[in-house]
Amino acid sequence: MDVLRPPLINIKGRIYRRNIIQEEHNEEVEEEDLSYTGPLEGDEFEDEACDAHVIEQTNKGFRCAFDVPSVLYKYIIGKKGETRRRLECDTKTSISIPKQGVEGQIVITGSHRASVSSAATRIEVLTESFRKKQPFTHFLSFPLNGPEIQEGFLRFKEDVLKQCSQDHGVEESIFQNPAKLHLTIGTFALLNEKEVKKAGEHLRECENVIRDLTEGKPLQLEVTGIEYMNDDPAMVDVLYAKVDVTDRSDRLQVIAGRLAEHFVAAGLMVRERERVKLHGTVMNTLFRRDSSVEDAGGPGRRTLSEREAFDARNILKRFGAHRFGAFRLNSVLLSTRYSSDCTGYYASAGSITFS
Prior knowledge:
By secondary structure, this protein is an alpha+beta fold. It has eight helices and 16 strands. It has helices at residues 73-77, 82-91, 113-131, 147-164, 193-205, 207-214, 251-265, 313-319, and strands at 2-4, 9-11, 14-22, 28-36, 55-58, 61-68, 93-96, 104-110, 138-143, 182-188, 219-228, 238-245, 280-284, 323-329, 331-336, 348-353. Strands 1, 2, 3 and 4 form a four-stranded antiparallel β-sheet that branches. Strands 5-6-8-7 form a four-stranded antiparallel β-sheet, with helices on one face. Strand 3 (14-22) and strand 4 (28-36) form a beta hairpin.
């Protein structure tokens, strides 16, 4: 078994080394150790701080308990329990982890406050590292599936298939489900019900600010025209409808920006770009091979190399100014990926309204 040692990394002012354990034939195992390389013994423990967790003194020493989603337990335990044993040995603590699939708290105990703090910090860094690798489960959306928009989309789909189906990669399977037309503000990996509830609470915290921006009224939107994501119209993966507020204001963009800023500050969303790119996907090559993959503006399970692009030049030429219709937007939804409600739209785990 070989241990690869890339350069040291600095996290929260501490130097860690990222170790990826590999078996023979270079098959990577789902185990990662972020090993603190600074002092770990005696009084030098006092140099390690844990600001995120409460450490309480007990009659046997010190104790720290905090929530970790059960899906992340395996990364703390490691293969055959090696990661946990290494953490316990390095920090001179005992780490208690609930049974797999049971939501609960990680409990760290030790003789020294700083040793418990060190273990908690290392577990936090470890779990956050693997959290970033989890596929997204939820997303903030503006629904765009009113009857007029759906009718306009179905006309677009029918006409494109009649006039452009001979173009490379153009086929029925890559069109969006009309009941799920939407604009994505941002995506989340919410790993248990507690995190879903927390995201819903954060969304409700935004309601008054959003209502101030909309003056307590729905936004009237116009959906006209199409655009593509990449640089080559002959090799397109995502084609989207353009959306504007009918009064030509930037209020929709401002609302999306405020929501994204709030969730980034709360640690629930990762900022992918400076400005939220609002787009209503109408065609996506992710749909081609798996009808269960429904676009929510974030990364799919397949790599770009596995996607077969389509030639959108004729579509852009013939339907570049296609009018999908008008829509009265009155809500922001915390939508659940791979789900449907009674209307055919994504099931909602939370919502706020403009009026």
